[in-house]
Structures are given as structure tokens and as C-alpha cells.
Amino acid sequence: MSSDEQLERDFIDELLMRAILSALAAGDMLVNERAGDLEIDSKGAPTDVVTVMDRRSEELLADHLLSGRESDGILGEEGASVDGTSGVRWIVDPIDGTVNYMYRLPEWAVSIAAELDGEVVAGVVHAPALGETFVAGKGKGAALHKQGVQRKLVVNQAPSMDRALVATGFGYDVGRRKKQASVVAEVIPQVRDIRRAGAASVDICSLAAGRVDAYYERGLKPWDHAAAGLIAQEAGATIGGLDGQPAGEDFYLAAPEPLFSDLSELLARLDAASD
Ligand code: IPD
Ligand code: CA
User: Fold this and answer.
1) Ligand 1: which residues within 6 Å by Cβ?
2) CATH number at residue 262
3) Are the beta carbons of 95 and 198 closer than 8 angstroms?
């Protein structure tokens, strides 16, 4: 390995460590300082909610991530948006799975990705109520830390489509949800079953951990998938959109091959990348 490559690897480790420590701090705050009144506001659709805790978590993350690295950029779901000049940009979801957090369901997470020159190189998805922290660095594999034990993550060997357990999610816009429901009605008879946990980052990490075989959704934003996508990729998943498009807001599909190709064909036939 050249010394430049070694320097880059060390830098990725440094970014990953900063992301882990920040996610742990936000997770502790979200568990220990949960407000009695979550002061709910809605953004756009009435079901798309933000709580005072989403905002506090994003503020804490910005403080931690940028402390001593003031020239980095940051993009956060609750409004943080700075390009920065260092080549590093943090992509954060201060609470992914806000509705689960509100209802005290355990599937919610703090998600942090570090982009270096436009490429995600480190990712952390910390799910305090599950006691789980998923991490990955580019080219270094993915791991799950739980109860002091570290486990390397590898996706399941792809089952045939009719044996696949498929996770998905639904957007907040009513028109989009209707279409997503009609797509899922066509998918469910063709697969083992469907799971809807309520937090895209946790779903994608569940794929990395072999708890589901595939995940798809239309309408994800970068903060929903940036960290978890690296984790799933490092665990062996193929990630993409439909019809050869890159994964993104139009469509996000993740699964090991050849299941990825089979699902991609089915979902394209169902016109799942449109509303
Ligand atoms: C949502 C969750 C949900 C997914 C939605 C996301 P939020 O994020 O990840 O599972 O289906 O598309 O918007 O609003 O809880 O941060
Ligand atoms: Ca969120």
C-alpha cells in the first residue's frame, strides 16, 4: 500500500471514530433527556413530523462533528446545510424513525455518514433502544457492536425471490403512499413476506446483518441511506436504482445478487419508481 493510501485509510478511521463518538453522544441525549412534551411540528404532510428532540439532536451532532473541523460541510434532515471547504461533508439524520421514537418503539437511529470529495467513506447507524451500533469504513468491511461484542456483517446468501424476506418503507405524501401500497400488494404474493420497521437506516442495516434479504423504497433522502448504504455495501449488498439508474430519491434497492436483479426486474415492471 502506498503512503498516500495509508494516509487516506488513517483519515477514514479518524472520521469514523468522530462519527461514532458523536452518534453515541446524541443517542445518550435522546434516551436520557427525552422531553415530556415532544412539541411536534409537521413538515409538509401532516404525518411527516419533527420533534424538539430531532432538532436538539441535530444541533448536538453539528457541534460535535464540526468541533475542531470548522471547514467541513454538513447536511442534516432538520436544516443543517453548509458546503464546507475541506472536502469532508457530514450527512446526518438526527433521528431516523421519528414516529417510532415518538411511540417508544425501538427501531430508530442516529445516522451519520462522512463524505470525502463526494464519496461516502464512513458510516455509523446507532440505534440506542436496540443497543446496536452499525459501522463501516470504505474498503474495511462492516460491523455490528452490541453489548461489548463486535460482529462482522455479511449479507445472507441470496435466496430465490419466493423465499426472500423483503423490507420496505412508505413516504409521507398521500399520493406516493397509495402507489407504494399498490406496488407492495403486487410484491407480497411473490416473496416470503414483507417487513416495515419504520426507519430506513435500520432496515438497510438489517439487510447487512442478514435479518432481511432485501430492502427497497422510493423517495429516500441522502440522510436516510448515506451511512447505512455503505454498511450494506461493505457487507456484500448490491445497491442501485431501477433500469440501471444509480440508487437515489427516485428509487433505492439493496440486495445480494442475483436477488437484486430479480427484484429490480419485478419492481421496474410494476413502475415502482414513479408515483
Ligand atoms: C423515514 C423513515 C421511514 C421511511 C421514510 C423516511 P424519518 O425517516 O426512515 O422508515 O419509510 O421514507 O422518511 O422521517 O423518520 O427520519
Ligand atoms: Ca429524521
Assistant:
1) 77, 93, 96-98, 169-171, 198-200, 217, 219-220, 224
2) 3.40.190.80
3) no
